[in-house]
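If your schedule permits, I should be very grateful for your opinion on a structural question. Thank you for your consideration; the sequence and its tokens are set out here:

===
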Amino acid sequence: MFDTLSDKLQNVLGGLKGQGRLSEEDVNKAMREIRLALLEADVNFKVVKQFVAAVKERALGEEVTESLTPGQQVVKIVHEELVKLMGASSAKLSFSPKPPTVVLMVGLQGSGKTTTCAKLARNLLSQGKQPELVAADIYRPAAIEQLRVLGEQVKVPVFTIEGSNDAVRIAKKGVEDAAAAGRDVVIIDTAGRLHIDEKLMDELVQIRSQVKPHNILLVLDAMTGQDAVNVAEQFQQQVNFDGVVLTKLDGDARGGAALSVRAVTGKPIKFASTGEKIQDFDYFHPDRMASRILGMGDVLTLIERAQENIDEKKARELEAKLRKAQFTFDDFLDQMQSMRKMGPLAGMLSMIPGIPKQLKSAQLDERELDRVEAIIRSMTLDERRHPEIINGSRRRRIAAGSGTNIQAVNQLISKFRQMQKMMKQLAGGKMKGLPPELLGKT
């Protein structure tokens, strides 16, 4: 995400980092390039003007001119101003002290609203909440059925009234049903249009009046850039929403919506949808996003994903096996599957500080992992635990069973033996330069 903007800003700021002194002309030149990069990223022109002015004022001040590393100080200023632009801190949902908390989802058709409802429900489940979905989109064909299918997928009940063409009544009855069932959050999916019209807004105003939502979330397609900001302004005037959910953020190479919407509307970005999978959804963290845009990584998100997807018990068992040099193909397969649950490899690399730009932009072939998994699954239990028994005929059988060739099987076994050898060296304390605590010798 934000690849185009990120590359341009990093190039501009990279030219400043190595300079021992910065003249006013150096700063002015950098600001011109930053302004152009932001405008090309479809950031609102008023937002660009204010951002550049704020950075320039600070960059020409004492905190830079008297700094030992003025270039790095400018990078720090740009980072801080980006964070401020996107909201300074993460904005959470407001939960009612008297359940259920009502969340009204609004937005245009095609923004991903229905899918976002299910993603939010799953997110709340992981926080210990008991959500219910309400299908109040009575206009789009199959919208109710889509929400039903998604509800089953995330194991959350879906309420609707069959054959009803009264969205206001469905929403109101849905809240009553959730309260009676003891659910503590109600998420109402409403109808969208291909454009904003009076009928859409009237219906939303009526629903808001009847259910009195604690949160009104506007779902915006991040890839529409400046158009998303224009939509947000119109919804703000009519519905006065509380926060924004940005969808398709993983496909947004520019960043115009994310960098503009809060500054223009004054409303925070509360959630971001960063992929097609139901789990690709979380709170929006302005500080982490600013770090990723400037190539500083996002270690906190990486750690959170690891904690969510890696089984702690299995991790301890693996540690014990590594100490005894008993690492097998089964262990290798478990680790590969855990890693893949955390998301695409390219996305994970972008979160790690210091990873070379060439590696981050490399086209990582996820299908190669599929081939590795197929080869391992074509092995017998004994072969996985004792790779040394895999002779020529076994290799031919494994290659045929995995749909690969003997060369691919040979390469995997060879790499695995190298890994096992390294594990033995690690367990035996032969890896030079490693501290005793990493070798289990305290």
User: Anything to note?
Assistant: Confidence is low (pLDDT under 50) at residues 358-363, 430-442.
